[in-house]
Design brief:
heterodimer; A: 295 residues; mainly alpha; 2 domains; two-stranded antiparallel ribbon; 16 helices; 2 strands; 3% strand; B: 328 residues; alpha/beta; eight-stranded parallel beta sheet; 12 helices; EboA_dom (chain A); ERAP1-like C-terminal domain-containing protein (chain A)
Chain lengths: 295, 328
């Protein structure tokens, strides 16, 4: 039989509820348990929707007290909860309470929440993508989230979210990354950024860099992280251009891009600066140090 | 839409108003062929009228968040040919629109199908001067499908097409938009390719299309760059617009750009073509535009009502004195 969840839902549910307990009042927890009981058997969709929306009123919106910034989902996979408010965390837990065995019914109800969601509800729903049952069912919804014009919603899809990298096909993934550049997101917080780097995205980002230069605008140094593995005769002059930049962080980005390249002239270019080469090999210069500097 | 690239903080400071540019454009008439008045206030209409904007085109677009049903599309299209047209007329500005399914919402195929069914009844309405704004956003298969379907509608109706070119992957998106329009047998002279920049303009002009430029702060063209474009490429088949909407944008972008061109020594005839005449030539091919209307709409009767509503509320004076801190 096909499995609804691709991780240990019960274990995750217990860990998540433990964190919620630590951050909630007795009264709030009682309310939440009552809602769970009222959900009934078979479940009442109305009760499910009502509770999802009402959570902030009864649980509160204060930041969660948690010793960890993430909850383990499975090997090598974590769900980040850093900076979460209680209502967001409880909403995510509540999503796990709807029975997933009837696939069509489940998808219809969750889609209904998306359609009627306010900004905070959308942020919770999109953040929950890696946790929803029937992972293949949310691909289109994810692309809608990327198309959103609302910052916190875009962030919920793009940052610390493992769903897009694992489920989107290449063109949709590339849109996510480009939109992140266009909307000034902290690019290094996109999960799967290096794993999903590809030739087409690199070419598009190089076009984008040319456009910005033509308009007299700056180019985000992190852009070259995604070009590095695809440096070739066509774009090498762009790498040379930032290598010769007066802005230090741009030169460093050029060096890091060259370090991830197999293109011989790029390797030679890096050899021209023993200092940068050594900083990279000793990990004193990484994309994370660049991200920290431009933040 | 807008992004906060390179905002330094000084953009958030109050700006001292200087209307010295108004002197430069005194007596000029402007046409803004792309502005989303639905998202703007009456103050904007007044300021546009004062700056010499006599007519505008409002393309159908994305309202900032996805619609969930066909009825909200129908109401929106109705407002473009109804209430918004009337609202504009009360400020002496002739309002036209283009009707289409925008690229972002083309991705919701279930909804897109329903919208395609109602589109024909709107594109043949009076004062609809084109199919737009249509084209690519993410450049998905669904976007291509509905772009092609709408090109066919435009062709059959003999209407110009107003193409929105994508923010992301712009150069390729622009090329692809033109390739597909030609593939469907459209005459490039019936196609206005919008949101050009330095990287796209040459090919658009070389292939015989109209090249529109959106003067929109921070994310699209600045008007100093626009001056350079006109210096380099001249005024043939080039037009400017504001695309003012719900983002940080400027409904006076067309008059301001004219003023800057004048200051930079660009010939008055070129300014006239780029900020007025070319857009009219392009969109009048719809047969739905009559310049006489630019004047008749000026006979503003503030007491007119649209379905019982007027933009003027009980006892309010038609114009308010912006220099006074007293509001009566």
């Amino acid at each position: 039989m096909e499995h609804a969840y691709h991780y240990d839902r019960n274990k995750f549910d217990a860990l998540l509820y433990g964190i919620i307990e630590q951050s909630s009042t007795e009264q709030a927890l009682t309310w939440l348990q009552q809602q769970k009981e009222k959900l009934g058997e078979p479940v009442s969709v109305q009760r499910f929707n009502l509770t999802f929306t009402a959570i902030p009123r009864f649980m509160g919106k204060h930041p969660v007290k948690s010793a960890t910034s993430y909850i383990e989902l499975s090997d090598n996979t974590s769900f980040f909860i850093q900076g979460y408010t209680l209502d967001k965390l409880v909403r995510i837990w509540w999503l796990l309470q709807f029975p997933a065995a009837d696939k069509d019914a489940y998808i219809k109800v969750i889609e209904g929440l998306f359609d009627a969601a306010d900004m905070n509800e959308q942020a919770a729903l999109y953040a929950a993508l890696p946790l929803l049952a029937w992972p293949e069912a949310w691909v289109f919804r994810t692309t809608e989230g990327i198309r959103s014009n609302i910052g916190p919603v875009q962030e919920a899809v793009m940052l610390y979210n493992i769903y897009p990298a694992r489920n989107l096909e290449e063109s949709a993934w590339n849109q996510l990354v480009m939109k992140a550049f266009f909307t000034d997101k902290p690019i290094h917080l996109i999960s799967g950024l290096d794993e999903r780097a590809n030739q087409k995205l690199a070419a598009t980002l190089v076009d984008y860099a040319h456009e910005r230069w033509a308009a007299g605008r700056k180019v985000h140094p992190m852009l070259w992280r995604l070009v590095g593995p695809f440096i070739n005769a066509d774009n090498f002059q762009d790498i040379q251009r930032i290598w010769h930049s007066e802005v230090n962080v741009e030169k460093e980005a050029a060096a890091l891009a060259c370090a991830s390249s197999t293109y011989a002239p790029a390797k030679d270019l890096l050899e021209q600066s023993a200092i940068l080469r050594d900083e990279i090999s000793s990990q004193r210069l990484t994309w994370d140090t660049i991200a920290a500097r431009i933040a | 839409m807008c992004s906060s690239h390179e905002l330094t903080g000084k953009e958030f400071q109050p700006i001292a108003t200087s209307s010295s540019y108004m002197e430069r454009i005194k007596g000029m008439r402007f046409f803004d062929p792309h502005v989303h008045m639905t998202s703007r206030t009456t103050d904007d209409y007044q300021a546009m009228a004062d700056a010499g904007v006599v007519a505008i085109i409002e393309p159908a677009f994305w309202l900032g968040q996805p619609r969930t049903g066909v009825d909200t599309f129908r109401d929106y299209f109705n407002s473009l040919i109804g209430w918004e047209r009337f609202r504009s007329s009360q400020f002496g500005i002739k309002h036209y629109c283009t009707i289409g399914l925008n690229s972002k919402e083309a991705n919701n195929e279930r909804l897109a199908e329903a919208v395609m069914e109602i589109l024909p009844s709107f594109i043949y309405k009076e004062g609809v001067v084109g199919v737009g704004e249509i084209g690519f956003d993410d450049q998905t298969a669904a976007e291509e499908k509905y772009y092609r379907a709408q090109l066919e509608l435009a062709k059959e109706a003999g209407l110009p097409v107003q193409i929105h070119t994508p923010h992301r992957d712009k150069k390729k998106g622009t090329q692809r938009s033109m390739d597909i329009a030609l593939e469907h047998g459209l005459d490039p002279h019936m196609v206005i390719v919008d949101h050009n920049n330095e990287e796209t303009v040459k090919e658009v002009l070389d292939r015989g299309f109209w090249a529109a430029f959106t003067i929109y702060p921070f994310t699209k063209m600045g008007n100093e760059r626009m001056v350079e474009i006109v210096k380099q490429y001249g005024s043939e088949r080039i037009m400017v617009n504001s695309a003012a909407d719900w983002g940080i944008s400027d409904p006076l972008a067309v008059p301001k750009t004219a003023a800057l061109m004048h200051e930079s020594g660009i010939d008055l005839n070129d300014i006239h073509l780029v900020t007025f005449r070319n857009a009219i030539t392009a969109f009048a091919q719809s047969g739905q535009m009559d310049e006489v209307d630019f004047d008749t709409v000026k006979d503003v009767d503030q007491s007119l009502k649209f379905n019982g509503s007027t933009v003027l509320r009980g006892g309010q004076q038609p114009r308010i004195d912006k220099q006074s801190n007293i509001i009566r």
